[in-house]
Amino acid sequence: MDFRILGPVEIWQADVRLEPLPSPRARQVLAVLLLDAGHVVPTDRIVEAVWADDPPPNARKCLQVYVSQLRRILPDGALRHSPPGYLLDVPPERADVHVFRSRVAEARRAESPATAAELLREALGLWRGEPLADVASDWVRQRVVPVLVEERLSALEERVDADLALGRHEELAGELRRLVAGHPLRERLRGQLMTALRRCGRRAEALQVFQEARAVMVEELGVEPGPELRRLHEEILRDETPVPRPSSGGRARRNDLPRDVPDFTGRDQELARIVSDVETAGAALRVWCVHGRPGVGKTAFAVHAARHLAARYPDGQLFVELHGSSSDQRPTSPESALDTVLRAVGVAAERVPETVADRAALWRAELAGRRVLVVLDDAADAAQVRPLLPGGDGCLVLVTSRRRLSGLEGARRLRLDVLPTDDALALFARLLDDGRVESERDAAAEVVELCERLPLAIRITGARLAARSHWPVSKLVARLRCEQQRLDELAVGDLAVRTGLGLTYLALDEPSRRAYRLLGTLGHANVAGWLAAPLLDLPEPAAEEIVERLLDAQLVEVTSTPTEPVRYRVHDLVRLHARERAEREEAEADRKAALGRVVDAWMSRVERLVEHLPPALPRLCQVELNSMPGQARPRPPEVDAWFEQEEPSLVAAVERAAELGMAEPAARLAEALVFAWFAVRNRHDAWERTHNAALAAVRRSGNRDSEAALACGLGQLAYKRDQLRPARDHFQTALELFRQTGNRRGEAVALNGLGMVSRELADHAGALPALTRAHQLLRGLGDVEGTAHALYGIGYVRRELGQDRAALQALTAAVRAYEEAGNQRGKALALRGVGLVYRANDEWDQAERHFRLAHEIVREVGDTLLTCYTTQALAKTRIRQGRGDEFVPALLDCLGVCRDLHDRFGIALIRRTLGEHHLAAGELALARDQLNLSLLSWSSLGLPLWRARTLRDLGASYALEGDPLAAHAAWDEAAVVFRRLGTREAAEVAGWHARWNCPCRDEDPVESDEQRRVASA
User: Fold this and answer.
1) Dihedral (CA of 465, 471, 477, 482) sign
2) Chain centroid to CA 130: how far?
3) Which pLDDT score is estimated for 103?
4) What is the pLDDT of residue 1016?
5) Do 774 and 694 have their domain in common?
6) Which residues cross the membrane (predicted)?
């Protein structure tokens, strides 16, 4: 299928023109896609092309309709959606506009004028009139058609130059008369007509052409003819033999561009931006500054873009090295660069002026009326580039730099970032070209990520692997994973990531170098802007100014929006290089001092957000709390958002401090984070990382108290994860260490933790002594909140044992103590505990009253997990009263919350509650589904008491279904556990058969080996 737009739009299939064509709007879409066939065209550009400045509200839906119309006539798969737009996958040789451009480009590379003339005739023969003549789009008429017409006229002028070189002046004279009449302001055509007439011996007519040109230009534009036409006029007046000058025909024009990288990959969207802008600009001057970090491929992209656009600039393509980041030579001076470009366009050495201003003026004059593409590579700053810019229209300048060159007036900027993952993998595969990437896809993906998808780093790793065909990709992954040797691995031949970063670093001033080194000391990639001040020990404005210099050098990047507090990102390879420099050039004491200031800054912010937490988490660190006694202050959502954003940096700060031997700051921040964030939102992984890092540091330092405190923290973490036996081991370790150091408060906290774990394991005989001793110690120390924790644990155990009076006494005292300490969450949990005692005695009103009070508190303070537990308590009360239906949606919501927060106990508890609801409603199959799932969870958690309670309910479902054998099997197993543990349910066993109308057995259940194993689990 062939497409023609150099005239009215036509589609041909096997020499037959397709009729009818799509609707007018669909033809507009087709035209825009054909202009960039083989490249993704952004949807916004298509919408602009079809509707200009007035798109309908449903423009994108309409566009989908037009795309569907086109797909009906196009080959399958030829037109497809490819973010951020659409791709028309048509071979260039099937679209006349691309064939035209290809022939023109081939003619410009031709060895002889005859070949060039023939190719240009072929190209011009594709034109059938005004391009896109039947496409009624202002965007096409104003932005596309003028560009295409300009390309045709340029090709026509080049063909005339080739014919003149072949001596065809006689036959050209008449044609040129007609062309000049049609385009009276095109000086090149005037000059060609003057040359043809002169060679025909018609000197007077040639001079007359110049006079006509002058009259038209003065009248129409108010300017004299350009220097080229004036030079030709003077030569004819003096009857001189013309001096050959560079032109766009044949081999005369200059092309200094380096070769395109053969395996250049990706950057389609970036290229499309420049191409679209050039098309929009028409003949206007365009300056693009391509900036980015070292190794991102700025030069390769600029050369690729220049070669892609070369056909639009027939008067030459120049490449100038400015050496802005070179270490072995000074940046190219503007004088030297101007000398280079002036010679490139044919200015003789004796004509080059001395001063920069005169050279720049001559350069602008030489480019007047020409279409030249200039690549200025590796610019140091805007001052180096400014004299090299053309003065008029018709040219394109591509500047590459590691800096943003924000002082370059009128320039458009394109920041090159690392490659998208798919493009990075594609580049890696092309470099190896042996199937290893396809066979080890996961390893290859990790390689490009460890290379940060940086083109230079990928090329280095690709070159290393290509030279080692016996290496699997996984071997390179193992070497790159080690941060200490990663920069060593990213070097091959004369290519090295470290070298590029080193050049940029050495170009900085000393304050910026110090900032770079200290950023490397931090050890993490994302840095809040406010941290620069404590890191550098400078006032905030001065610190910000220095970091902004690193931003200009592309060593850091801003990741925040203008409306957010500023955040910087340091790429991993940059961070590793900065750390190398810090360890080599910064004294250890200075590095520790800087990190200490940062940790102190974090602590001052984190401590203001420390929360009162439930009894599971007795606090060791002494910090100012987030709420005052008697108050329940909700947690603002922006607090969670702040921690969510800063968590990686906070974790890295603890780990880095620990790595540098700063044990106490690491331990202090690690524990504060538990109460401010990790425990509040179940951030278990971060909790574990920080505590393990700090624990290793304090062990090296020999501080037993801090070691014990961190062991307590790990015990609390294991408890939160429902890993009760590891939790008991951590608390036991802490207890022994605290007793060695004589820390009575620490001993009490560890005992409280041991009691807490024992009560969950239903080891009530072990729990009560530990909790009682903790209560005595904490009360003696005047620790009201710690006393409340111990009282809550005692009340919990008393309730499980059926000692309701003692349970109410302890739990009510816990409520009062929590109130005094200002711990609203603890108060809510203790109120819930009181309600559970009343519910166990069927005192529904009292139970619901306490559950409601607890529920209101946890909702007010915004604790979503505790809200699930108070919801469950209320739901079970209603179930016992036969009114459970109204709570089923809330229970299902709570199930989702517990899943999100990885609370396995909560999941099992809510599933059991749902099972109890279905049991009470007579929905026995549904009840067994939920109860069996809960049963599996209790077994996995190693909680025999809760498993036995669920077995009791499961037995009830069998009894109600008329299966007494299955009922008694479940009840027998449950009864053994209740009697062994001595819980309140042991006294209820005998009444189960009557409660659920199941035939009674005379004999007591006999404990089997399996039941004995389960009961002791």
Assistant:
1) negative
2) 46
3) 87
4) 44
5) yes
6) none
Q: Looking at residue 804, which CATH number applies to its domain? A: 1.25.40.10
How many structural domains does the chain have?
A: 6
Residues in Cβ contact with 702 at an 8 Å cutoff, skipping those fewer than 6 apart:
none
Cβ pair 458, 427 in contact under 8 A: yes
Q: Do residues 135 and 47 share a domain?
A: yes
Q: CA–CA separation, 249 vs 265, rounded Å?
A: 32
Dist. CA 508–CA 491, nearest whole Å? 23
CA dist., res. 299 & res. 416, Å (int): 11
Residue type at position 817: A
Residue 102: both structure tokens together: 């290809």
Structural domain contains residue 18 = yes
Q: Is 378 left (phi over 0), alpha (psi -120 to 50) or beta?
A: left
Residues 660 and 804 in one domain: yes
| pLDDT in the model for residue 185 | 84
Residue 551 in contact with residue 610, Cβ under 8 Å? Answer: no
Separation in Å, CA 191 to CA 188, 209, 223, 829, 839? 5, 9, 17, 95, 105
- CATH label of the domain that carries residue 331: 3.40.50.300
* Residue 483 region by backbone torsions, left for phi larger than 0, else alpha for psi between -120 and 50, else beta: alpha
The whole-angstrom separation of Cα 576 and Cα 590 is 18
Q: Are residues 670 and 571 in the same domain?
A: no
In a shared domain, residues 716 and 815? yes
Q: In this predicted structure, what is the pLDDT of residue 244? A: 42
Residues 609 and 579 in one domain: no
Closest CA to 963 of 955, 951, 974: 955
Is position 394 within any domain? yes
- Residue 862 exposed, middle or buried by CB count within 10 Å (0-12, 13-18, 19+): middle
In the 3-class helix/strand/coil scheme, how is 254-310 assigned residue by residue?
CECCCCCCCCCCCCHHHHHHHHHHHHHHCCCCEEEEEECCCCCCHHHHHHHHHHHHH
What whole-number distance in Å separates Cα of residue 456 and Cα of residue 503?
Answer: 15
Task: Report which secondary-structure segment, H or E, holds 361.
Answer: helix 356-367
Domain coverage including residue 135: 1-166
Residue 99 and residue 69 share a domain: yes
Burial 800-827 (b: 16+ CB within 10 A, else e): bbbbeeebbebbbbbbebbbebbbbbbb
Is 143 part of a structural domain of the chain?
yes
CATH number, domain of 47, equals 1.10.10.10
Closest CA to 661 of 712, 595, 714: 595
Q: Would you say the C-alpha torsion 272, 278, 281, 285 has a positive or negative sign?
A: positive
945 contacts 759 by C-beta, under 8 angstroms: no
Choose the final residue of a domain: 559, 586, 613.
586
CA dist 697 and 433 (Å) reads 47
pLDDT of residue 235: 80
Determine the pLDDT at residue 1015: 43
Tokens 């109130």 belong to 819
Report the C-alpha dihedral over residues 820, 826, 827, 831, rounded to 10 degrees. Answer: -150
CB 710 within 8 A of CB 698: yes
- Alpha carbon distance 540, 560 (integer Å): 18
The first and second tokens of residue 984, run together, are 């309140």
Where does a domain end: 415, 441, 458?
A: 415
Cα separation, 986 vs 978, whole angstroms = 5
Determine the residue type at 76: D
Q: Is 222 left (phi over 0), alpha (psi -120 to 50) or beta?
A: left
526-528 and 557-558 strand pairing: unpaired
Q: 665 in a domain, yes or no?
A: yes
Q: Give pLDDT < 50 ranges for the chain.
A: 243-252, 616, 621-632, 1003-1008, 1010-1017
User: With contact defined as beta carbons under 8 Å apart, do 342 and 397 qualify?
Assistant: no
**Within this chain, do residues 514 and 566 fall inside the same structural domain, yes or no?**
yes
